[in-house]
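Reply to dn_fold:

You asked what the input looked like. This is it:
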Amino acid sequence: MSTEEDTAQNNSPQAGAAAVETHTSPALAPFKTPIFRSLWLATLVSNLGSLVQTVAAGWTMTTLTDSHQMVALVTASTMLPIMTLSLLAGVLADNYDRRRVMLAAQLLMLVVSVGLTFVTYFDLLTPWLLLIFTFLIGCGGALHNPSWQASIGDIVPRDQVPAAVMANGMSFNLMRSIGPALGGLIVVTAGATAAFTLNAVSYLALIATLMLWRRPVESKTLPPEGFRQATTAGIRYVSLSPNLLRIILRGFLFGLTAVAVLALLPLIAKDLLAGGASTYGLLLGCFGVGAVGGALNNARIRARFNNETIIRTTFLGTALGTLVLAMGYGQLVSALALLLCGACWVTSNALLNVSLQLSTPRWVVGRALSFYLMSSAGGMAIGSWIWGLVAEHHGLQLALMLAPCAHVFGALIGLRLPLPEFSTLNLDPLNRFIEPTLAVQLSPRTGPILVTIDFDINDADIPEFLMTMAARRRIRKRDGARRWSLLRDLETPNTWTEKYYVATWVEYVRHNQRRTVADSDVSDTLRRLHQGTEPPRVRRMIERETVPKQADPYIKGYDHH
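and this is what came back:
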């Protein structure tokens, strides 16, 4: 007799736990894992090159054109690929070897950076050509980031993920504290060509580390999802996860508002502070120092305040720093304001990233991260364009004064849609499903498959049963079920039937393998409410078309007449 698919006995006595250990991991704990340490160090070198390139590109644009909007578009051109390609990168991260995806992305950025170096050396660079090169480098970053961030949960234990994410962010901001100053110095003393050359060389360390990394091969019994199916599954999962939607929304709003500082910083250095490339580099370095300070104090901050209080404070702190920058009081005051902005930047982004990773199971974490990166980068790309446009037509100071108003809105929206706390749910696979032996030969792509599950429920238990089924509906649809419905037998009213479709047999198997330990509470409750002497009965059926016309004599007779 067939039993309900996720109510079979579990082989592991611990798998029914609904929560996991969530104690704070020491900040340096992830570095005890050799591959994380190696990748982190290689990423440190790569980040140094990227920041030198950022300074060189931003300052070079100010020498190629007087347009404020074109200067701001340098930031937008690196963010736009993340907005447009992150979903593709997330699908690749969830369905293919993440190491190979990262390696391909790094090789792409190396080739493009070499091209930018040659074009600059031969004095062929134009404003639009510079934007094209920065856009292509951004494409490589967009392909790399979801795989790298999703790999963190594979490399270190779950309780070390917050520390690893923070260390990852600190890697970038450590270099941000010295990279921009170094970039400004290189541009002033050796020119933009030397800065672009350094960036090209910086990719080699990470490429070598990825080539030497012998990542364990995952044993997958199912073929990779097609791009369309994987994209649909990611959209469906995120859209049916309210906590993820709130995280993604706040990421978009923070990117939209906070990017005003970075997008307009070359103009702040040049116009408000009457400085040069070295001034720009030093100011960007102060932003990085603030970010490192925020990263080092992040664990203490998270221990004392809830997530919504922290994210609201980062919005308001960035608003204050931006307003001070608008006043143009001098380099020292501006540097202090950038320390505050940098601390708020890394605290906000790390908090949102960790919240999302701890709220998402491994099978879809790459796609969930891609949605977050896409929304955050989209906010930054749109914000760069908006603040550049305002500065172009209404003045730099007005743009810097309007941005804090948007920051305040981002803080106030938390009153209605507060950020969730870190998830304590165990999102590991439940692993209760055993694929049934079928009497009918099916190929993996055969479908659609209709599944019905019969329950026997007492009248007194119906309210609890209906509430539990509401949760069941969300889980089913989130994991790939279609046309879900709940039916009640009119002749034997204690009999209730859950009904849903999946596209193919392989999707049915994939649907059941996506069930997490945290979902087991719903299945356990339904099993407890079921009053039959046997487990709930499952029927799996293949849907077929009606009898074809050529095989039906009545249809033939009708057609003849």
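Strands lie at 449-456, 482-488, 495-502, 537-542.
Hope that clears it up.
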